[in-house]
Every structure is written in C-alpha cells, then in structure tokens.
Specification:
Elements (H helix, E strand, L loop, with lengths): L3 E2 L8 E11 L5 E11 L9 E3 L6 E6 L2 E2 L4 E3 L2 E4 L5 E10 L9 E5 L2 E5 L19 E10 L5 E4 L2 E8 L3 E12 L6 E4 L2 E8 L5 E8 L8 H18 L7 E7 L6 E2 L4 E5 L12 H16 L8 E2 L5 H19 L2 H20 L11 E2 L8 H18 L1 H15 L3 E2 L1 H12 L8 H4 L5 E9 L4 E9 L14 E8 L10 E5 L3 E6 L7 E4 L8 E4 L3 H10 L3 H20 L6 H12 L6 H7 L5 H6 L6 H18 L1 H10 L9 H19 L5 H11 L3 H12 L3 H15 L3 H12 L6 H9 L9 H12 L2 H4 L5 H14 L3 H5 L2 H5 L6 H15 L6 H11 L1
Parallel strand pairs: 2-12, 18-19, 19-21, 22-24, 25-31
Antiparallel strand pairs: 1-23, 2-3, 3-9, 4-8, 5-6, 5-9, 7-8, 10-11, 11-16, 12-15, 13-16, 14-15, 17-18, 20-21, 25-26, 26-29, 27-28, 27-30
Bound molecules: (3S)-3,7-diaminoheptanoic acid and zinc ion.
C-alpha cells in the first residue's frame, strides 16, 4: 500500500465552492447526482486535470458545462477529467447499494434506516469528489425516498423545502450555509421519532434541538438531551462559542464503527452514547453519554468552523476537543474523579501504544490508512498536550489564545502549527520548544530526587528527563514538562503552596529554602504532564502521601504506586513489604473525611494490564496470581470493614446525584472485595444484589462478581439477565462482555461458544467489541499460555476484515505488543500475526497494522 507523507502536502489544484446533490434513495439502489461548481486554483502552476476521489464507484454519466463528457479515466478508483478552463460545472451520476455496504463507511443501511459516515474518507464512496478536508463547499441537497420506509429525511444545515412525489415518495431539500469539508456531510432517512426541545443562545437566538431514535427508545433520550443543553451553555461560558444554525439534530444508529460523528448540524451517534435510563444504563454509561454528546457538540467550533488542512492535523480538532469535553465533564461532576478516569484511560490505551510498534507522534509523519490513526495518541495524548498549554499559560491567557485561534481561522482548514501560533500571539506565550510534543513519539520519563540539607534548611530537587530515541530523528528533543509540585511537611502533611516547575532541559535542579525537616515530595500533581515519573520514593513516603496529600489525584497516585511497587516486586520474586500496603488501605478505609466515590478509587488495585506495562518482560499469569493474592489478603484483613461499608451504601431511591452514585460505586467495590475474601456467603450476597437491583450499576456490579464464580452460582443470573434483556441490544452487549471478561479458566471456550450464539453477529460493531474486544481486555485469559486466545482473535480478524476492515484493524494492537511478553507467548502472538499477514486480499487497514507490528 502507498504511504502518504505529511511533507508531501500540496494545496488543491481545484476548489469546489458549491455542491448540489440529489439522492433518489433506496436500500438496494440509491442514485446520486452531483453538480459541482469547480474552480481552478489561481496558484496552480500547471493545467492539472480535475481529480475526483472515488471508492467503489462507477460513473453512470458525466457532463461538463451541460454537455455529455466521455473523456474521463478511472485511476485507482479516482475519476480524472482533463479540464482546461478556469471554472466548470461538472455533473456526475452514480448508483450505490447501501444494503451491501458492510464497511459502514459512506451510505449504508442500519436497522431499516439509511445513514452515512464520511470521516475520514467515506464521502468518496457516495459520489466522486476531491475528498480532502481543505476543500470547503456550500452544500444544497435534495433527497427523495419512500414515505413509508423513510418518513424522516435529514441532512446538514436547515430544511428549506419539502413535498410529496409520485409513487408514495416524498422529498426534502436542505441547505447548509456554512462551507464544510466533505467529511462533515451527513444524511439520514428513516422511520424515526424525536425528543424535541430548544435552547436559547446567549445572544437570544432560539435553536431547535432533536434527538432522533426508533419509536420505543424515546424515553431513553432525556440524559443525552440534558447533556446537549449543558454543553451548549458551557461552550458559551467557558470558550465564548455560540451555536450557529437554527437546528441541531442528533440521530442514534445501532451499527456504527466509532462512538459518534460531528457532522455539521446532524450528529450521528452510536446508540450506546444516546440511550439510557437507570434500568439499562450504568453510571459509567451515563457519563459516557454526557462526554460524547459534549465532544461532538464542541466539534462544531473545534473541528467544523475551524477544520483540519489535512489528516496529519487530526489532533488539531481531536486533542483539543477531548480536552474540552474532559474539562466540561469535570465541571459537571468531580474534578478529581474525572482526572483519575482520564489518566486511567491514557495509561490503559495510550502509554502501551506509545511504547509499541504502532507508536506515532500526536501529529504523525506518515500513514497508509488514515482510519488507523484515530488513536489514543492523537486523541488522549493530544488532549494532554493542550492541557499542558493550559497549565503553562493559565486559564485567562489560554482563553485569549483560543479566542484568537477561532477568530483568525474561522472558515478555514488549519494546521496544528496555526493553533500553536495563535496561542502564542493571543496568549502571549513562547511555545517554541513546546512544539516538540507534536513531533515526538514515546512517553518521556522523568526522574526526581529530593535531597535536604538541614544546616541551610534547603531542599534540592534534581530532575532529569529521558525521551525515547526514534529512527526519525538523530537527537531526541528536550520536552517542556510542566510539573505541579509541593513539598509536604513530614509530620503534618501540610505545605506552603504548590509551584509549577517547568522542566525543559535534560537535567535541572530546583531549590526550596526554609525547609527545617526533609520534606515529602508531591510531584506531577493532577498529572500535570503525561510522563512516567521515576522517583525513588520509599513505601513509607508513598503511604504518607496516600493519606496526607491534599491533591486528590496525587493521593490516588501515591496509593497506586505503592501497590504497583509491591506487586511488581512480588512478580519478579523480590522481597517487598506487604504490611505497609495493608496499612495504607486500612488508613483509607477508616478515613471518615473521604468522599465515598474517591475512596472507591483509592482502594482499587492497579489493573493487570497496567502492572504488565511496568515490567520488562510480561508474564500475565504471574501478574494475575500476585494481584489476586494481594486482593485476597486485603479482603480478608478488612472484611468486617467492607461489610459495614457495604451495608452503609445501601441504595435508597434511585438518583443520579453525586452521593447516590458514590454509594453505588463503593458498594460494588466492597462486594468485589467481600467475594475476594472467599467468604461462604459471597455468592449469595452478589445474587441478592443482582436480584434486588433497580438499576444497572448494581446489577452489572453483581453480575461481574458472579461471572468469575462456578456455574452453580452464576448460571441462573446470566440466564435471568439474558431473558430479561434479550430484546435490548445495548444491554445484551453487557451480557456478552461480562462473560468475555470472566477470569475462569474456561473463558476462551466460552467465547468461542458465544460466537455461535443466535444473538451474536459480526455485522454489528458493538456486538463484536462486546465479545472479542472485552476478551482482549482480559489479560490472563487472552494470554492463555496455550495461545488459543491469540488464534481465536487472529481467525476473527481474518473473517471480519472481509466485511469491516476498520473495526477489524482495531484488534491488531493487542497482538502487536508481542515483543513485551515472555518467549513462549511472544512466539505464539507473532505466529498469530503472521497468519493474518499471510491471508490473501487483506484490507489496507489490517495490512498496515500487521506489517508494522511484525517489522
Ligand atoms: N470525528 C469522529 C471520528 C470518526 C472517525 C472514523 N474513522 C468522532 C469524533 O472524534 O468525534
Ligand atoms: Zn472528535
């Protein structure tokens, strides 16, 4: 496959200021007629032909300036027209078949409706077009279809006209006044009903809001609607950004490759990020909906009004928008809990990516298939980079910078460099050296050593940074690393204020006067930089921080580090002090001042995957054993405490208040610990919680605990769950997920059996992720020493690739980390990758990931 390079960017030779589209819709055949107003770029030096991208398209007819035109060629799917004038009208007709579009890119059918997904390169599967984000066009769309099958016809912008047509058909015309790149085009036709509401912007404009779903789902749209209105208000207040159309539509779709899509005025969502009520959605599901609705809404400015010049700039819109949605969710809920969650995601998904064969900078230098670059690096590390700018500049200057960015580039396709320059100009900042974050892959490591001189009362903090060497650059860059730091009094835990230390050299030291005693170092508070901190803190110091640090993230982090150090020592057979871990957990459990949700986070053990990432050679079984042993010990030691807390967290009337949610969260954590103590009544306790639950958080928590138990304990609950929710696809996904995550020895077998279950289907990405995605997130079973788990995933990828390459390619990274595992597993993982690589007709998507993983 061809490699596309960032340095090869050339401005377009032709622009398309106006697009008219006419859709004659049908599930098996849709006729698309386009009328493009094309203008040759004044800066184009040569008489370049007009090249219109196409994927799987054949022109039925081509006309230029009103005349039939046969002088065209198809080159790798693209239509080449040797036009000589400065501007032309090009009219093309194509026919497409949405019903056979299993890739879910372009126009496809889902549950009786027709819908689109165009980012990044789906529009070229609908019509011939220069499908690149620096071509901004005004769209006028007429769509016509069966009134019975598609009573609702939606597109971007505002509806300008509608009417009936012959043969039981009807039509609608939509005009989007905002010029947009083709990847933001969207169309939906279906039998849908709306939760209809409105929002008045701060300048007094009324916006109609609709969330479109299938008939029975209407009662589950309230939370998404609230999230939408909250987002609209927040973006006005925090970024000064107002909505810019009279209508905002959201449609929920069951078959969707990703979470959601920010199409102008017509967001299309995976239904799992819209539909919720307490019976079917967990608290985490509610949060996911709030975050994704906000994310897509915020794209209206960071992505749509200012878009990306080319796909190498993807983090321009994604990193920034993730930072915006993270800040929003923190403001709606708890700053501390949100930060813990964000960092957990970063460490679970991004750090491993950055340490493996698929590592890339947040602004990649090259790609073969752009779909493979919608990664945790571009999104989540991208968000961390924006967050660091926010920390370095402070909220006010940061806002001045973003104001200038939106103002200066409104209506343009911009670059990451444009963003940084606007932040410098608007926010009066010098970000010259900071730019290395955009080009450097790998997680920087920082080591910190604090020494103390009692004579002079001076504490000295020696910091150094190490950035991984990459093939691309001979000299690794020095990063600008903002570290929120405090020195705590070793007795009281108090400090005289936090400082923002900026490490921007290979080595640097900082002095602190007036320190009569050796202080305790609290560094990278709030996870102010996305780095790996290598500090030589003793277990005593970590335990101290886990009880005394006033920064909640730092407190959580100290406990995690304490547990991690102990567990990694156990795995490698090094002696380690368990009592101090138990004491720290005990102290947390008896600290009456801690919020219950925070306590639930504090006493959670680091995940097996995270522990593996800390080790040079990963042995999943040894990690699992060590962790289970510590879990059991904590459970037994504090069993009475867990039982008391469990009883105290008994739910009252269901509510989404912070307090009620905290109770549900801590109650589930306690239940899991009680089960970990091997208590005789654990199964009964979990079964009772399962049977009595009036909400999915409690039900799923109980079922998760039961999922690891024997059939006599768990069987009835899984059956009951299935029978109750078999008609609700999103809940049934949980039924598959929990079985795939079971630690039982027969899980691989079970997953294989479930693949043959009548409710399993490879054509629904949510279902595929529920069964197989969850399985790859179950380290001890996916990494079964027999290699059965690897073969299962490899065979599934080969099968899925023929149908849906984008989703198939997402399963390569878990196998791609083979070099980190002990010899036997590494060999089996590599063999699985080789089997995939040897399959004929692999997609570009899977091929790129597999070949990079084997290289
Ligand atoms: N921008 C979309 C991503 C779609 C990618 C498809 N390969 C979702 C989002 O980040 O908001
Ligand atoms: Zn996004």
């Amino acid at each position: 496959a061809r490699t596309i390079r960032r340095e090869d960017y050339r401005p377009p030779a032709w622009f398309v200021p106006e697009v008219h589209l006419d859709f004659q819709l049908g599930a098996e055949q849709t006729v698309v007629k386009s009328r493009l107003d094309v203008r040759r770029s004044k800066s184009a030096k040569y008489q370049e032909p007009l090249i219109l991208d196409g994927d799987d398209l054949l022109p039925v007819s081509v006309r230029v300036d009103g005349e039939s035109w046969t002088d065209w060629t198809l080159v790798e799917g693209a239509l080449h027209l040797p036009l000589t004038g400065a501007s032309h009208i090009v009219e093309i007709t194509v026919e497409i078949d949405p019903s056979t579009n299993t890739q879910l890119m372009g126009l496809y059918a889902s549950g009786g409706m027709l819908c689109t997904q165009c980012e990044a390169q789906g529009f070229r599967r609908i019509t011939f077009f220069p499908d690149r984000p620096d071509i901004l066009s005004r769209y006028t769309v007429r769509m016509e279809g069966s009134k019975a099958d598609y009573p609702v016809l939606l597109c971007n912008g505002d509806k300008t006209d509608a009417g009936d047509a012959d043969g039981g058909r009807h039509w609608a015309e939509w005009v989007d006044p905002w010029p947009k790149p083709s990847y933001l085009f969207a169309l939906v036709a279906g039998d849908l009903v709306a939760n209809n509401d409105s929002f008045t912007t701060r300048s007094g404009k009324e916006v109609e809001l609709n969330i479109w779903v299938r008939d029975g789902d209407l009662p589950r749209t309230g939370h998404a609607m609230k999230a939408l209105k909250d987002s609209m208000r927040w973006d006005e207040q925090v970024y000064g950004r107002e909505y810019d159309l009279q209508l905002f539509n959201i449609v929920a779709v069951s078959d969707f490759n990703m979470g959601a899509m920010e199409n102008k005025g017509l967001n299309i969502f995976n239904s799992r990020y819209i539909l919720a009520d307490p019976e079917v959605a967990t608290d985490a599901d509610f949060d996911g909906i709030e975050g994704v609705v906000a994310h897509e809404y915020f794209h209206n400015w960071s992505g749509n009004r200012v878009t990306c010049r080319d796909w190498f700039q993807l983090s321009l819109k994604e990193g920034f928008t993730v930072f915006r949605d993270q800040s929003f969710s923190a403001d709606m809920g708890s700053q501390a809990l949100k930060r813990i969650e964000d960092v957990r995601i970063l460490r679970a998904a991004q750090f491993p990516e950055d340490a493996g064969p698929l590592a890339h900078p947040i602004r990649p230098e090259s790609y073969q298939e752009i779909s493979n670059f919608y990664t945790a690096t571009v999104y989540n590390k991208g968000a961390e980079v924006i967050r660091m700018m926010h920390s370095l500049m402070g909220a006010d200057r940061f806002r001045k910078g973003t104001d200038l960015y939106f103002d200066r580039h409104d209506g343009e396709a911009a670059t990451c460099e444009d963003f940084v320059v606007a932040m410098e100009d608007g926010g009066d900042a010098d970000l010259r050296q900071f730019r290395s974050w955009y080009e450097t892959p790998g997680t920087p490591k920082v080591s910190a050593r604090l020494s103390h001189d009692p004579q002079s009362g001076t504490a000295t903090l020696n910091l150094s940074q190490q950035v991984a060497r990459t093939g691309e650059k001979p000299e690794p860059s020095q990063m600008v690393i903002p570290l929120r730091t405090a020195l705590l009094d070793p007795d009281s835990g108090e400090h005289e204020g936090e400082e923002l230390l900026v490490l921007d050299k290979p080595e640097q030291s900082f002095q602190f006067e007036g320190q009569t005693e050796h202080p305790i170092l609290s560094i990278n508070r709030g996870f102010s930089a996305p780095i790996i901190m290598e500090s030589s803190q003793t277990p005593e110091e970590l335990a101290f921080l886990s009880t005394h640090d006033d920064d909640p993230f730092a407190r959580f982090e100290a406990m995690q580090q304490l547990m991690t150090n102990y567990l990694t020592a156990r795995v490698t057979g090094t002696p380690a002090d368990r009592d101090i871990v138990l004491q720290a957990v005990g102290a947390a459990l008896s600290d009456e001042s801690i919020d219950r949700a925070f306590l639930a986070e504090l006493i959670l053990l680091p995940s097996e995957a995270f522990l593996g990432d800390q080790m040079v050679v990963v042995d999943p079984e040894a990690i699992h054993e060590a962790r289970e042993k510590l879990r059991g010990k904590i459970a037994v030691q504090f069993e009475r405490k867990f039982r008391r807390l469990y009883a105290q967290c008994t739910p009252g009337e269901f509510s989404l208040s912070a307090e009620a949610r905290a109770n549900r969260k801590l109650r589930n954590v306690c239940l899991a610990y009680i089960a970990g103590s091997q208590a005789d009544d654990a199964a009964a306790l979990a079964s009772d919680q399962f049977a009595d639950a009036d909400n999915m958080t409690a039900k799923q928590g109980a079922l998760s605990v039961l999922s690891h138990m024997e059939d006599k304990d768990r069987g009835w609950a899984f059956d009951d769950f299935y029978n109750t929710y078999r008609d609700n696809a999103l809940v049934l996904d949980k039924w598959f997920t929990l079985q795939s995550l079971s630690q039982r020895g027969d899980t691989v077998k079970r997953v294989k059996a479930l693949a043959g279950h009548p409710d399993f289907t490879m054509s629904n990405p949510n279902r595929v992720r529920a069964l197989y995605g969850s399985f790859t997130a179950n380290p001890v079973r996916f990494h079964d020493a027999s290699g059965e788990g690897y073969r299962l995933i490899a065979d599934m990828v080969i099968h899925l690739d023929a149908q849906n390459p984008q989703t198939a390619a997402r399963f390569i990274p878990p196998l791609g980390r083979w070099r980190r595992y002990e010899r036997g597993r590494a060999e089996l993982m590599r063999t699985a990758l080789e089997k995939i690589a040897a399959t004929p007709d692999l997609s570009k998507d899977v091929m790129e990931q597999v070949s990079k993983s084997l290289a």
